[in-house]
Amino acid sequence: MVLQAAYTLVSDAIPPEYYWHVAISAIVIVVTHAFAQGRTTNRERDLHARTILVTGSFTPLGLTVISNLASRGAHVIAISPYPLEHPFATLLIPALREETKNEHVYTEHADLTSPKSIREFCTKFLTGDDQRLDAVVFAHEYACIGSFFGSKAQLKEQREAASLATFLISTLLLPALLVAPVERDIRIVHLVNPFYAAANPTFTSDLVSSMSTETQTTVSRPLLQMEGHRALRTIVFSRHLQRILNALPNRAPTWDSKPPGSGPTSGNEPASSPTPEKTAESKLPSNIVAVSVCPGVSRAETIRALLGLGNETGSWLLFLLYLLMYPAVWLLAKSPIMAVQSILHALFLPSPFKRALAHLAAATDPSSANATASGPGSDNSFTEVIKPGALYRECSVVILNVPLLPDAPSVNGGKGKEKASTPGKKKEDGPDLEIEDDGEYGGEGVGRVVWEWYETHLKAWEAVTEVKETNST
Question: Global pTM?
Answer without folding.
Answer: 0.84
